[in-house]
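Good morning N.,

You mentioned wanting to compare the apo and holo forms, so I went ahead and generated the holo version with adenosine-5'-diphosphate. This is what I fed in:
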Amino acid sequence: MALNSTLSVAVLSGKGGVGKTNVSLNLACALYQAGFKALLMDCDLGLANLDVLLGITPEGNLQNALLGEAALSDVLYPVEPEGFDVLPAASGVPELTEMSPDIRDLLLQRLEPVLGNYDYIFMDLGAGISETVQTFAAMAAARIVVITPEPTSLTDSYALIKVLHNRFGMRDFMVLVNQVASPREAQASFEKLDGACRHFLHLEPVLLGHVRNDNKLPEAVCRQQPLLRFAPGCPAARDLQSLAARLQRIRLGMADWLAARKILQTVPQ
Ligand SMILES: Nc1ncnc2c1ncn2[C@@H]1O[C@H](COP(=O)(O)OP(=O)(O)O)[C@@H](O)[C@H]1O
Ligand SMILES: [Mg+2]
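and this is what came out, ligand included:
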């Protein structure tokens, strides 16, 4: 049996609108350019919007696969020319906006056969600390908390980390500071969150990196294209490429640990 080397990453935030979906999809693009294959899962079951950002109108989605209306393999859509696959979710469908343990187990069972085809699984979560967010966050091998320098983003992300730490004993959080003016601003924002986590929770988040505030990003969103396609050389795109390279080094460093665990799981390790 081949050793598992797939890294599953939950992309989280306390506050909404901080850039989780754009970060997830552009990391998937950047990693494909570097030779790695990603699956991007829309895990925002209430307000899914990955399809909108990609300008695609998928016929089926995660909820259809969970309700037995479609095979999981039929709701994985290749995004070209970016080269990653997307598993879209339905938005505004009242059934299945929340993740019960039964649904989680069904999801894991349906996903299991396909996960090993990828180097990365990115789970683009909804904002906040709902049960669904907590369940997805606990399933992944790694977590990226996306923050911005706004004080509300810092307090909300601290609350999210605290909830996950208290409930699951989680200690490992990577922090990505989005919409910054400079690397120095990213460092200062990280230090505020890091200080609170060390002092009150006795855990040490890791700064994954930053993405600069860039007008090209809202433009790419309006054009429904990934930033890396719309404006590949812009400052935010270059930052996302550096982040992808950093993540790849982290995945290599985790190789033994990844080989010894399931790609997604019910009990956090
Ligand atoms: N680095 C950035 N520079 C400029 N605007 C950004 C940046 N990142 C995100 N945005 C803006 O924030 C909006 C919300 O991003 P999105 O990825 O949908 O956030 P979330 O998934 O966390 O709700 C985008 O539509 C874009 O206008
Ligand atoms: Mg989003």
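The pocket of adenosine-5'-diphosphate (ligand 1) is lined by residues 13, 16-22, 178-179, 211, 213-214, 217-218, 221, 236 (CB under 6 Å).

Happy to go through it together on a call whenever suits you.

Best,
F.
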